[in-house]
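[job 0412] stage=fold_complex status=start
inputs:
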Amino acid sequence: GESVGLHLPTLSVQEGDNSIINCAYSNSASDYFIWYKQESGKGPQFIIDIRSNMDKRQGQRVTVLLNKTVKHLSLQIAATQPGDSAVYFCAESGAQKLVFGQGTRLTINP
Amino acid sequence: EAQVTQNPRYLITVTGKKLTVTCSQNMNHEYMSWYRQDPGLGLRQIYYSMNVEVTDKGDVPEGYKVSRKEKRNFPLILESPSPNQTSLYFCASNLPGTSYEQYFGPGTRLTVT
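[job 0412] stage=fold_complex status=done
writing structure:
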């Protein structure tokens, strides 16, 4: 069936370190894979996406990696800052529909 | 400022009392969607609309109605709310062809007693 899941529900990192958030998916037919960030009390905010025919895409301080062989998606945040504290959702897209994973809470230790 | 607005932000109501949560966007987006967010279940799509007068069911449409009479507005209607509809609701919009880059509203926390 169609599902998007996460390996870990929480992740704690030191300020300045790199963060890696992982996600597993099951629908090989998805066109895009997307990462959203949700800060406390706010709606999700688009971070970065990757098309299914790519394996890597970089943005500002973020990199998304897609491994279609093992159906795995990851979000790497470089030099993690306090403002990166949030819940991060992976999602897969197809046919005008988004399917979200359960989310990983990222906390930053000073 | 480009944004999606929702009202009310917080609502406590009783079982069976009809309510409407409004959603409006000022970005001229054709596609709009409603989600509910529950602990451990993530975001699940309730209904979506690809344009005016075009709506379709998402993954969890039972107990909800929507309408799309104007491009900017997409209200969510609960005709007879029940406690299992207690949740955090988000409205989102995007341009056609970019279903992944959705703009979300601030959320409406609904409690049904």
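[job 0412] summary: Chain A has a mean pLDDT of 89.
[job 0412] exit 0
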